[in-house]
Amino acid sequence: MYGLRLIGTGKALPSRVMDNEAMTAYVETSDEWITTRTGIRQRYFCSEGESTTTLAIEAARRALEDSGVDRSEIACLLVATSSGEYAMPSTACMVHKALELNEDIPVMDLGAACAGFLYAVETARALLMANGGRYAIVIGAEQMSHVLDMTDRNTCVLFGDGAGAAVFALEEGAEYYSVVGTRGDMAIKVGGPRREQPMEMDGQSVFRFAVSTIPMCVDKLLEKSGETLDAVDWVVCHQANQRIIDASVRRLGVPAEKFYKNLDRYANTSAASIPLALAELRESGRLVSGQRMIMCGFGGGLTWAGVMMRA
Ligand code: ACO
Is 47 exposed, middle or buried (0-12, 13-18, 19+ CB in 10 A)? Predict the structure, then answer.
């Protein structure tokens, strides 16, 4: 079996910090409501000159540096995003230019909402296996503030901007298990025919979907691998709501410490949340080479994906 190994990470955040108090300037809400319903305490929003593109470039540069891989060895580049600056060119093309990568490699954006990063990991593995080459850069980058309706308290307090990037190596014998799924459903909508419609979300049905999807993905990955959660060092879920992660931990009946959480500082950064968490874990020395992790994403579409692999 050929699997992927995580060998480098990077992250990028915009300069403007918006705490819960700052959100009361836009909608009738409170720090108390946001904190108790979601666990979110602050988020980052882009300022002038910052965008999905600038964040993706910065995160990718850091991940490449962290991996020690020469840019000439990168064989594919994918950006998971639902908030790219342009429909054309793709965010991936702009990162390709900034990093001066080779011309003969596939480079593209991929949209699967908050499950997008893991959809992109799965796609990167398939592209490396089909085309040859050893290293892939996979980025999750979002400017969610660009698609939010800042008069809708049901959604605007939940999201933030940011980017995370990872360099993966394709290796023979490397452990790799995945689950990927979709349920075409209109629980979350953004864009409309001319990409002008801000986000609308049926929060409660997404909540119910999420708390059943995380345990389902984890169980399937454990079944495929023949492992138990005792043998897994980290579970990194999409960071949407603390209550979603806590409910999943309870359903699985496992120690909460394995489930990484950082949504108190970043809110829901959609496709960026999992690679942002990976970068934080690696930078702080808590995720080290050889450790086994499960990643699990869920989001608009509805989409979901889970991957088990080693750092
Ligand atoms: N401040 C104050 N009150 C609010 C706010 C707010 N920001 N937002 C909603 N309320 C009010 C509602 O209007 C409602 O009032 P009412 O009872 O008078 O009608 C009340 O709070 C309760 O609303 P609920 O929807 O019942 O609150 P709930 O406990 O379900 O929490 C939440 C809402 C946080 C959205 C939750 O349903 C959730 O997290 N859902 C999942 C959303 C999610 O994870 N989405 C992202 C995944 S996909 C992606 O990332 C694109």
Answer: exposed
Tell me, using a 6 A CB cutoff, whether residue 29 lines ligand 1: yes
Find out whether the beta carbon of 268 lies less than 6 Å from any atom of ligand 1.
yes
* pLDDT digits 0-9 by tens, 201-222: 888 889 999 999 999 999 999 9
Q: Which residues are catalytic?
A: 114, 238, 268
What b-and-e string marks burial along 166-200, b requiring 16 or more CB atoms within 10 Å of the CB? bbbbbbeebebbbbbbeeeeebbebeeeeeeebbe
Helix (H) or strand (E) holding 275: helix 273-283
Per CATH, domain 2-172 is 3.40.47.10: yes
What kind of architecture, by CATH, is found in domain 176-310? 3-Layer(aba) Sandwich (3.40)
Domain boundaries, the chain: 2-172, 176-310
Question: pLDDT of 48-106, one tens digit each?
Answer: 999 999 999 999 999 999 999 999 999 999 999 999 999 899 999 999 999 999 999 99
Q: How confident is the model at residue 194 (pLDDT cuts 50, 70, 90)?
A: low
pTM over 0.85: yes
Distance 25 CA to ligand 1 centre (A): 18
CA-nearest residue for atom 33, ligand 1, is 203
